[in-house]
Amino acid sequence: MTAVARRQTQQANARANGDALAADWTGACRRIVAAHRELFAEQSGIAARTVYAGIGEGGDRSLAIDRACEDIVFAELEALHGQGHAFTAISEERGEVIFGEPGSGVSVIVDPLDGSLNARRMLPSHSLSIAVASGSTMADVEFGYVYDFGASEEYCASRGSATVNGDELRAEGPGFGLEVVGVESAKPERMVPVLAALEGKAYRIRAVGSIAISLCYLAGGRFDGMLTGRACRSVDAAAGQLVARAAGAEVVFDGAGLDVSLDLAARYHVAGALDRDLLATVLEAQARAEPVPKAGA
Question: Does CATH place domain 178-286 in 3.40.190.80?
Answer without folding.
Answer: yes
